[in-house]
Amino acid sequence: MTKHTLKLNDRYFDAVANGIKTFEIRKDDRGFRVGDTLKLYRVGVDGKYMTDLTVEGKRLTEDEPSSFANRVEVKVKYILTHDDFPDGIPEEYVVMSIEKVGE
Fold first, then answer.
1. Mean pLDDT value of segment 29-49
2. Torsion angle in degrees (nearest 10) through CA of 49, 54, 59, 60
3. Rounded distance, CA 25 to CA 97, Å?
């Protein structure tokens, strides 16, 4: 099983971290497989790691992307590809069912 480090827009990060968003749609440029782990890091709309977050009174910086508030790990449970759903999934993309690690 492979561990992938990926950025995730702040708009979606909290929904994944809270277990509400249980899927991820990505270009399959990494050969995602069931059982892989995705280490998702919170980023702003500009693609940069969030730097304006505070945890326990401490301001987080780009040097701390592994901070609890900025990272969530999920396991890939199921994958749909273009071959599975040609009218709905572009050829180079996958839809992954995900579950937070440790839950």
1. 87
2. -30
3. 9
Residue located via tokens 């899927």: 23
Two tokens, residue 72:
């969530």
Residue from 5, 3, 13 nearest 70 by CA: 13
CB-CB neighbours of 91 under 10 Å: 9
pLDDT at 23: 97
> Which structural domains are found in the chain, ordered by start?
3-100 (2.30.130.30)
Any idea of the CA torsion for 91, 97, 101, 103, to the nearest 10 degrees? 180
CA-to-CA distance for 54 and 15, rounded, in angstroms?
19
- Cross-strand pairs, 36: none
Mean pLDDT over 65-76 rounds to 75
pLDDT at 16 over 70: yes
Q: How many residues are recorded in the chain?
A: 103
